[in-house]
Amino acid sequence: MRRARISFALMLALLVGAAIAPASAQQVPLQDKPFAEHKIVLQLSDGDTKKQALVLSVANNLLKAYDPDKIAIEVVTFGPGIDLLLSGSERRKQVESLIAQGVRFDICLNTVDTIERETGKRPEFIPAATPVQVGVGQILFLAENGYTVVRP
Hints:
By secondary structure, the protein is of the alpha/beta class. It has helices at 2-25, 49-65, 92-100, 109-119, 135-144, and strands spanning 38-44, 71-77, 104-108, 130-132, 148-150. 47% of the residues lie in helices and 16% in strands. Residues 1-26 have low confidence and may be disordered.
């Protein structure tokens, strides 16, 4: 009887752990855009300024092509791509303008932590950026929830 209780407790613990794991993998909640007909996630993992400009251009063009209420746009930055969201970025005003129009910009905290470990200084990013623990995990979460992943 005791073994059956222990087995039951272990099974219950495994089930609870399995139920909690997907929730903890979620980086941040989905955008509150109930009328969005299109959902796009733009991946930026490159520090190249031309790619940064391209991502901003794509987001801006999508806002022009669709009513901002009808499209959910999320830019997920990780690795060298977080340069776009650092406080001293040349494109800060463009980013903040897009955020004001409903585009969400995510910054990978794993990348921020790695930079801090390697340099001894935590990089400062714009306050309007949304911190996510795992950038690629956020992309996966969005893709699993109907977003189309685009890597300009």
